[in-house]
Amino acid sequence: MTAKIKLIVARELGFCMGVRRSIDMALSVRQQSDGNVTILNELVHNRDVIDSLSKAGIGQTFDMEDVSPGKLILSAHGVPRKTLEQASARGLDVIDTTCPLVTKVHELVEKLIDSGYHILVFGDPDHDEIRGIFGHGDSRMMTLITSASDLPKTIPDRCALISQTTQNVDDFAKLSDVLRNRFPTIEIHETICNPTRQRQEAAIELARRCEFVYVVGSASSANSMRLKEITEGICGRSMLIESPDQIDTAQLEGVSVVGLTAGTSSPDSLIAAVIKRFCSLFDVDLVTSHPEFTRIATEAGKQ
Ligand code: SF4
Q: Domain containing 231: what range?
């Protein structure tokens, strides 16, 4: 007999406006151009999206030197100022799809540096967005903070804290409290974006109702990693998946309520494929406020 499982889908999950905008811009450029179209770095951190852009005839490279003459697309994560200068020096036609919410952070960094501030940046080392943020300031006046345990012992008189847009909202609040207590003059700028905040709030609600949570997203996606950490911290068991095949019945032995959420770079088609996979493995009672997912589960149940 097929095991019964309640599958609860987070009320906020998947693509954010910045990711949708970036993909739409890239596809529109491809449609309107006969020449080379190349993306620098990953447009968004999701294998399915990258594969579909490649199938549409859009190239990808991690090195400006490898970009063929033509159009160059810059990712939603943003790039350092010097990348824009290099592209312009090479005569490339740049399509900058940096998310407007990341651009706001760049503008804040420029304003703070111009005003003589040292900036503490709460973020992930080696993330594209962090490289872009540092590349809009002066690295001598900026320090990357990855947790409350690596705070500096002293700070300059004029010092501000900002965040990568996809950081954990609670961790940022805790870090801010520690810094305010230690250095009362510090300026705090909470620059986590709203879509990230909404997905984290929904993931917290979800994990409280579940025994196991799947997060659709890749390990290179900062906001997907945050959703995994948050849900694991609440319900104890959470797994990041990039493909429906990663779900199997052995993982869910003895589990009756499962949660499903997805990072901002995970397309609806991938979330739908995960729901279908559940329906093929279990007798699913789907709980969702998304009509499209209800339709998919109903159709899968009839097959
Ligand atoms: S996660 Fe936030 S900052 Fe990043 S692309 Fe989406 S909306 Fe923009």
A: 4-15+194-302
